[in-house]
Prior knowledge:
Radius of gyration: 22 Å
Domain Phospholipid/glycerol acyltransferase: 103-220
CATH topology: Glycerol-3-phosphate (1)-acyltransferase
Transmembrane segments: 6-26, 38-62
Number of strands: 9
Low-confidence stretches: 11-19, 280-355
Mean pLDDT: 76
Shape: globular
CATH architecture: 3-Layer(aba) Sandwich
Number of helices: 11
Distance between the termini: 81 Å
EC number: 2.3.1.51
InterPro entries: AGP_acyltrans (IPR004552), Plipid/glycerol_acylTrfase (IPR002123)
Keywords: Acyltransferase, Lipid biosynthesis, Lipid metabolism, Membrane, Phospholipid biosynthesis, Phospholipid metabolism, Transferase, Transmembrane, Transmembrane helix
Helix content: 40-55%
Order of helices and strands: HHHEEHEHEHEHEEHHHHEE
CATH class: Alpha Beta
Strand content: 5-15%
Amino acid sequence: xxxxGTLLKPFxxxxxxSVPILFxxxxxxxxxxxxxxLSIYTLCLLTTSAVAIGISLTLTLFGQRLNxxxxxxxxxxxxxxxxxxxxxxIEGREHLENNGGPAVLVGNHQxxxxxxxxxxxxxxxxxxxxxxxxxxxxxxxxWMSLSGTVWIDRKKSKNAIQAMSRAAEEIKKKQISVFIFPxxxxxxxxxxxxxxxxxxxxxxxxxxxxPVIPIVCQNYHHIFDGKTRMNGGVLRLxxxxxxSTTGFTAxxxxxxxxxxxxxxxxxxxxxxxxxxxxxxxxxxxxTANRESTEQRPLLYSQVASVDSDTNDSNLETTYGAISGxxxxxxxxxxxxxxxxxxxxxxxxxxxxxxx
Length: 355
């Protein structure tokens, strides 16, 4: 036996002994199960990120760089799903084909567990749009860069607009799809709900003249609540028919966003199990105010992104002031729709302000 083997033997033995112990705790204690499963999920994510660098380099050498996300996503799902006991059932996968053409894919965003459903459904020849900060994360940021991720700089509005323009050109030139979370940030509640949509994804679809394909994962708060619960189970994912943008202009973006959100919310409610009474009561107080202000629950709300012709200074302050740099350029005014998860700045033509 080598010296290294001798030194590692106690650790190997300890690791093997710890497996049944962890399994017992995982089965007996809800709290222990949460932390053990969360650790397993994180470890699988880190492992896949490390392996993804090799996958990215290999596929690039063989001219298959645009399929990197597909193979990395499947690797993560195949590794993580059986360990955690979470299975994704997909309906409507044929809609991803879109007759062989590109599209802007939009999905609801509940937590970082969404990576699991992306792993099960992510198509070939598709990339993602993400905040630039992720590019600095070891392993994760490295393979994302190698896979052609479109980075959004949240701190520089002009850079975000340029990234959007590049993304539209890439879609048309390379015939690739782009995945975006239109809510812009995570929203995890016991009840099936969607935050108001940012309009960046829809501006991108209109600019590239490609359809929007809505992707809806059922509410999984009963499986993962981000605090004390992380269990196994089956999650239903529905890929809805493409929504055409042919002939649409910047003036059509608002209606396109509203139609997509309404379609996704309807599907989300149908897919999701009802929240238990105790869970609903916990969050009822925090959501009551938001729900009471919704004049049209499916399409519009007081917390929707602020139009440039809005006179409500409180709303404008809450959701971001117009970029001073872009205002001075005279070309456009902008809604600051860049948030913690990398939603993009939405350019709004100056002509719209005169309405």
